[in-house]
Design goal:
By secondary structure, this protein is mainly alpha-helical. Helix content is 77%, strand content 0%.
């Protein structure tokens, strides 16, 4: 595995920790509040790197930020209704959406990557069978998966024209502004902002982790990694997210994962390995070694 793939695997590992954290935080805050507060924290961290960005970088950052924000908000909303395991599994359906969306946008399908995506989605399906369904939670999380698939494709195309740190900074600051405005609009009545501060107090450490590490740090590393990894292959790597989420959900929230879940998780791991496998043609008779 090359360095970029290892970077994306690490990003996926950290993202896996966010599912149980957001699930626990949703006992105090709703999805919009969690998303807005985490990106306000992340925006403060990345603001110094955004000051010198070009107009082109800001345009790209605004586009990426909007699409990513839709994904984060719908994921957080879904976590109010379904388990962190199930949320991670449905979100990871983007692994199958990416290659086919890329085909609609003029890309080409690799049989190896499509096979890996199908294997990963089959594994995800087995894992998601363990959790209870909920129409609102499942629907919101499917929107999350679709918007994130679009985000992966856009990032692979836009990162080639911009520095990773600058693009990550403009994107995160844009997300902080948009989510902050959203939060203000929904909390202007009465003493809602004061109540928000009181409700957020028990989970401020979680919000700092989500903002500084999982958002600012990982979106930057994602931009670094995806510079050299095609969108389709990156999506297969991100399919490891539900495996990590299931692990941390079991460790922190005592969520269970049955036999189907373990088999599904193993299939996802195999899909990632298969997607990275470099096949070499067999030597023909008479060829020298």
């Amino acid at each position: 595995m090359n360095f970029s793939v290892l970077v994306l695997l690490f990003v996926t590992l950290v993202w896996g920790t966010t599912f149980p954290i957001i699930r626990a935080a949703s006992a105090h805050l709703d999805g919009v509040e969690i998303t807005a507060l985490r990106f306000l924290v992340a925006g403060i961290c990345m603001l110094p790197f955004a000051f010198k960005a070009s107009r082109a970088a800001w345009r790209a950052g605004l586009l990426l930020g909007f699409v990513a924000l839709v994904s984060y908000v719908t994921q957080a909303v879904g976590l109010e209704y379904i388990s962190s395991n199930r949320s991670a599994f449905i979100t990871s359906l983007n692994v199958l959406m990416v290659p086919f969306l890329g085909l609609l946008l003029g890309g080409r399908l690799s049989l190896q990557i499509v096979s890996a995506a199908v294997l990963a989605c089959t594994g995800i399906g087995l894992m998601s069978w363990e959790g209870g369904s909920n129409l609102i939670g499942d629907s919101a999380t499917l929107v999350c998966a679709l918007s994130y698939a679009i985000y992966i494709i856009l990032l692979s195309r836009l990162i080639k024209n911009h520095e990773s740190r600058t693009l990550a900074a403009t994107q995160i600051v844009a997300m902080a502004v948009m989510s902050g405005l959203w939060l203000l609009v929904t909390h202007l009545h009465g003493d809602a902002l004061m109540t928000l501060a009181v409700r957020a107090e028990p989970v401020w450490l979680s919000l700092l982790y989500l903002g500084v590490v999982a958002s600012a740090g990982m979106l930057f590393l994602q931009a670094v990694g995806q510079r050299h990894v095609p969108a389709e292959k990156a999506a297969v790597i991100y399919a490891m997210e539900p495996v990590f989420a299931a692990l941390f959900g079991w460790l922190w929230l005592h969520e269970t994962l049955g036999v189907r879940g373990f088999v599904g998780g193993a299939m996802v791991v195999l899909a990632v390995i298969f997607g990275e496998w470099r096949f070499t043609p067999r030597a023909k008779a008479g060829d020298t070694i």
